Amino acid sequence: MNRTQKQSQIAILLLRLIAALVVLILAFLIGYIFITGLPNVSWKFLTSPAKAFTAGGGIGVQLFNSIYLLILAMIISLPIALGASIYLSEYAKDNWFTSMIRTAIEILSSLPSVVVGLFGFLLFVVQFNYGFSIISGALTLTIFNLPLLTRNIEESLASVSDDQRQGGLGLGLSKYETIVHIVVPAALPGIISGVILCSGRVFGEAAALIYTAGQSAPALNFGDWNPFNIDSPLSPLRPAETLAVHIWKINSEGIMPDLTQVSSGSAAVLVLAILIFNLSARYIGRKIFEKMTSMN
Amino acid sequence: MLNTKNKSDRFIYHFNPEETEITMQTKNLEVYYGKSLAMHNADIQFQKNTITALIGPSGSGKSTYLRSLNRMNDDIATVKGQILYQGVDINQPKIDVYEVRRRIGMVFQRPNPFAKSIYGNITFALERRGVHDKRVLDEVVEKTLKQAAVWDQVKDNLHKSAQSLSGGQAQRVCIARALAVEPDVLLLDEPASALDPVSTQQLEQTLRELKKDYTIIIVTHNMQQAARLSDYTVFFNLGEAIEYNKTRKIFTRPKIELTDDYVSGNFG
Ligand SMILES: Nc1ncnc2c1ncn2[C@@H]1O[C@H](COP(=O)(O)OP(=O)(O)OP(=O)(O)O)[C@@H](O)[C@H]1O
Ligand SMILES: [Mg+2]
């Protein structure tokens, strides 16, 4: 064996070791969280409200808040991200204006989420006077989510072969028709994967929500689904502590006797949810695509 | 019939319009990418219900020429000169470019079925134009797939994704898709270059059948294909049409030495 061969073998070995280490750390982390947390998770834990001073509290309201905020944030950010990415990938010319937009998105996506949270606090909570509320939280999450989602969708659109666009134009369709009816559907698996991955990120976000959606989870009346009533689960103006914020909150100032159990149980649920988001992203994208392409 | 020798180094066959029905014709066409002239000197007439092959070395302007014919170069290049279709110059701003592309259909080098079912690929453009009658659409699907000679292979799976088809089948579905909007000219840019020999032969047979109803212009790198398939051949070199004549003459007695070199493989 000559010297370059030996060198490359050592390099490969080293890279394998590093990769193994990364996997090991991840496995250890997830394993630890699950082993300490999952035994505390029960149906009752998932559905009952939290208790501040006594044992036996659950995370029902927080879980609901996390899901509701996620859905709202996605409803707001998806159309904007879709529009922005279609513009960037299909229409924008390569000039200073476009590159300025791209740079802005780049910067926005690398802002620490706590900064986004404080911005949301100043703008939505204070300036717009929405208070600590679902709506403040959802809007802040939109700002947090928008750059990455836009970039994800833009990449999915850009990966659609130009042959598809040519095919549409060649049939006498307008550019707009071609984009909406050919390019976007072709990019759908990527777009769906991107949305699900971003959902995982949003679901686990705490710092952006502490000063916007608030740190309290008032009891909800799950019999009242009128969004205009303040104790309805759908009310956009009620404060809404999410699961991730809950974990942060009880660990910094919680005084319930079963603090560790609640905390580790919540962490396990959160990690499990994010894991499901991440692992399912590709699969669901592909499945929906198969369904769609064979429909008509 | 009148044959003109433009210059001694080019030969372009001209039909007598009194005797022949000309579907398309270009006059003084010049195509620029940015400032650079990519294609000029190609006053070609295309006779109705014939197959014309465009041959020539890589980069000689075949695709550039072909794409100009249905205004697919609109956003990419500047196209000057006249493109006559049924006697009307379609290279004018006031012409409805979508209608031009409907009448002058295009099939591309790589099969490009949309992310829809076979059925959806074919009906798509019609639906965009407001045709929703299921009976009409069913008929179009069957008719065009039969024309493209792929009906028997896909008729039981019309709602399967078109992207799961083999290259040869996908290319035929793309042809059927182009036929669905009822064009009368079909432009094909190396449609068989991604296909195996058997699919290629089947495709050629299909084009021969289609010639009865359509005027076909096909770019090909395959000399045998041009010789087998086409009635007329244009030889392009360095952005110019060097020789245009009956295919038989191009391949047996070319008038220009350059053409002779190219078709006999002594080029370069
Ligand atoms: N989009 C474009 N932008 C700039 N220049 C181009 C573009 N497309 C083609 N050209 C140039 O125009 C000339 C003719 O290219 P064209 O694609 O028409 O050749 P071709 O005969 O089709 O070649 P091939 O056989 O390789 O497909 C080439 O010099 C090419 O580099
Ligand atoms: Mg070409």
From TrEMBL, chain B:
InterPro entries linked: AAA+_ATPase (IPR003593), ABC_transporter-like_ATP-bd (IPR003439), ABC_transporter-like_CS (IPR017871), P-loop_NTPase (IPR027417), PstB-like (IPR005670)
GO cellular component, one term: membrane
Gene Ontology terms, MF aspect: ATP binding; ATP hydrolysis activity; phosphate transmembrane transporter activity
Keywords: ATP-binding, Cell membrane, Membrane, Nucleotide-binding, Phosphate transport, Translocase, Transport
One GO term of the biological process aspect: phosphate ion transmembrane transport
Every ABC transporter domain range: 24-263
SMART domains on file: AAA (SM00382)
The protein's name: Phosphate import ATP-binding protein PstB 1
